[in-house]
Amino acid sequence: MAHWLLKTEPGSYGWADLVRDGGTEWDGVRNAAAANHLRAMREGDLALLYHSGADKAAVGIVRVAREARKDGADGNWVSVTIEPVAPLPRPVTLSAMKTDPRLAGMAILRRPRLSVSPVGEAEWAVLVEMAE
Asked: How far apart are CA 132 and CA 116, in angstroms?
């Protein structure tokens, strides 16, 4: 199983919306690197849902419920379906991620504008620990 981080603006669609809906189509991603990460996702993979904007924190865990399919007419973009698993007991802020040396190589810190990024196994374990 792989792990991921999905960034969203909570004013547009956040954790509460995902829980209310029971899942959603993660579409509209128009960055080639982020789209490649969506293509790499497999059913059952877990991801952190990260609120960008004012919150700047990972707030919940989601599961990939359906793998990538075409998003849009041109065929360059894809979407996946995600469903909520559980809120994090305590949000993990971007500032906390930046101060933990075990997360120094994490994609969100190296390429902060990327909306979909991989999270390594060791990084995932650190983030889960920080959320407890």
From this structure: 24
